[in-house]
Amino acid sequence: MIDALDLLRDKRDGKPLSREQLYWLADAVISGAAEDAQLGAFLMAVYQRGMSAQEQAHLTLAMRDSGTVLRWQDLPGPVLDKHSTGGVGDLVSLVLAPMVAACGGFVPMISGRGLGHTGGTLDKLESIPGFCTQQSESSMDALLRTNGLFIVGQSATLAPADRRLYALRDVTGTVSCQPLIVASILSKKLAEGLQGLVLDIKTGNGAIMRRHAEAEALGQALCHVAVAAGLPCSALVTDMNQPLASSAGNALEVAMAADFLRGHSVPERLREVVFALGEELLQVGRLAADAAGARAQLEAVLVSGAAAEYFARMVAAQGGPGDFMERPRSYLPSAPVQLPLLATEHGAVSNIDTLRLGEAVRNLGGGRRQLHDRIDAAVGISDCVQLGTRVHRGDRLLTLHAASETQAREVLGSLASAFMITAEASPPAIIYQRLSAPTSSQEKRIR
Ligand code: URA
C-alpha cells in the first residue's frame, strides 16, 4: 500500500518514485487525501532532488489522468497545437492556429490569460466583441469538427491536479522547478488529446527564461518527456530581447494578426517565427515531408486567403461578428490618447528593455496586477522600432495608446530609458536553436 509519508521519505532521500506512487499522489491531490503540508514538502523535495525523465513522464501522465482527457474521434487530419513560454507582442497563436487548420490540421487550442508582463491569447481574443473563450466539451467537439480549430480557456476538468499543485508552488518557492514546470505544461497539453505539439521557448530580457541555457534545458526536458509520453514534439528557442511584433496590447495585437492573415505587411521577425513554428508543426503532424514543403503550404494558405477564412469562421463560431475579417478595426476598441516616445539622440537602437515595455502595457491597464483586475483591451504600444534600427533625435521609438493623457505621460516617463541608442548596433538572431527529443525517449515510451 502506498503511503504519503513513505513517498515523501523516498523523495527526500533521493530514491526514484514509481509510476504507482506518482499516480497515487495525483489522486491524493484531487481527493484531498494529501494535506497542503505534505504536498508542499513533496514540491520542495522535488525542487531539491530533481526528477529523472521517467519520473517526470509518470508525474505528467498522472496529472493528465487526474481529469478529463479529450478524445477526438474520426477526424480526417492530425490534432496539433503549439505552446509558448510567453513574451511581449507574441501574437503567434492567433495566426498560426488558423494557418495550420487551413493546411489540414485540427487545432484545439487551450490558452491562458496574461501572466505578469506577458500577454495572454484569451485576453487578446476577448477584445473582439462577443468572442467567448469558455466552451463546453460538446461545443468544443463541434467547433473542431466544423471549423478545424478553436481557442478557449482552461476548463476545471482538464488536469485538475495541476491547479492545486500550481497554487501550492506559488506559496512554497517552487514555481521555477523544471520538472514541475514540465509536468504542469505537458499534463494540460496531453489532456487536449493532441497528436503533435510544437514549443516556442523564449529567451532574452522579455522572457521568463532570460538565459539561453535555461531555455534550452527546459525545451530539451519538455521534448524528452512529451515524446516519452507518446506525444510527437519539437521546440524552437527564439529571441525575446525585443517585442516580437511591433505592437503589444490586446486589440492592437488582434489588429496585427488580422493584417498578417489578410496579407498586409508585418514585421519580418514575426513572420519568421510563425513560419518556423508552422514548419515544425506540419512536419510533427506528418502534413509535410520536409521544411520546404511545409513552408510552401503555409505560404499558399496565406496567399489564397484560406487562413484568413479559418480565422473568420472561428471568430463567428465563438460568438464574434460574422464579418470581422472584412473590417477588423471597426470592431476593435481604440484608445482615446496616443502619444509618441521620441529618440533623444542619433544612432542605432542597441538595447530594448522588453520587460519594461511589457510592464508598461500592463500598467496602462492591458494586463493584470491581480487575478480579478479588469483589462482595458484598447491600450498598449505600437510602431515599436527594432534592434539595429538607425534613428535621429526626435524620431518615433514607439506610440503609446492610453486611456488618459495623465496615464500616458506617467507611463512614457517610465519608458524614457527603455531604449539604448549607441553608434552601431546589429539586430539579434530570431531563432537560436531547434530542439527535438533524443531517440531514447521514443524507445522508453511510457504509458
Ligand atoms: N505554464 C504552466 O502551465 N505551468 C508552469 O509551471 C509554467 C508555465
Describe the protein's architecture and organization.
The structure is a single chain. 46% of the residues lie in helices and 14% in strands. The chain has 447 residues and is an alpha/beta fold. It folds into three domains: 4-50, Transferase, Pyrimidine Nucleoside Phosphorylase, Chain A, domain 3 (Up-down Bundle), CATH 1.20.970.10; 80-327 and 431-436, Pyrimidine Nucleoside Phosphorylase, Chain A, domain 2 (3-Layer(aba) Sandwich); 333-422, Alpha-Beta Complex (Aldehyde Oxidoreductase, domain 3). β4 (196-203), α10 and β5 form a beta-alpha-beta unit. The model has no long low-confidence stretch (mean pLDDT 94). Bound molecules: uracil. Residues 181, 184-185 line the site of uracil.
SSE inventory with pairings:
Layout: H1 4-12, H2 19-31, H3 36-49, H4 53-64, E1 80-84, H5 92-102, E2 107-111, H6 121-125, H7 137-147, E3 149-153, H8 160-172, H9 178-191, E4 196-203, H10 212-228, E5 233-239, H11 250-261, H12 268-284, H13 291-303, H14 306-317, H15 328-331, E6 337-342, E7 347-352, H16 354-366, E8 380-382, E9 390-391, E10 396-402, H17 405-414, E11 419-422, E12 431-436, H18 439-443
Parallel strand pairs: 1-4, 2-3, 4-5
Antiparallel strand pairs: 5-12, 6-10, 7-9, 7-11, 8-10
Bound molecules: uracil (URA).
